[in-house]
Here is the input.
Amino acid sequence: MLGRPTTDVLNNQLGPLSASTGLVSLTIGGNDAGFADVMTTCVLQSDSSCLSRIATAKAYVDSTLPGRLDSVYSAISAKAPAARVVVLGYPRFYKLGTTCLGLSETKRSAINGAADYINAAIAKRAADHGFTFGDVRTTFTGHEICSGSAWLHSVNWLNIGESYHPTAAGQSGGYLPVLNGAA
Here is the structure.
């Protein structure tokens, strides 16, 4: 499912887990931190508005996200105590230092920095729960938006929920190798 916050995972997605579950994988936290609003602000507004919205998201990552992640991770452990849990992170979204239509280098750099920031928070919470963090930034390197070989959808005004999520190639070439290496 795309674009689901921690509350949706807790309320609607843990039902299939059980004591016999062997592997759980998830990527979570970005939607709680306002990822869609960050990207909308950065696409439609000024550099300063983008940077301000990213600062707000980072403050959320510091103040509220750890508790939300703890709730999800504790629920997973309770429902699937024997499972290996792999928490996959987020890629850097933009290739920097190249001509790219759309967002300024300032915005692209700040968005990438925000991805690194949330990954650090997610990795810490995952480790504290004994889970494995799967860092996908290396597998996505060279396949960012503006790379000419993007494994991420850019903004899609006709299907906004698809925007900035991995393409099929991003799932198979970016996420799957990291999951397989961690599982």
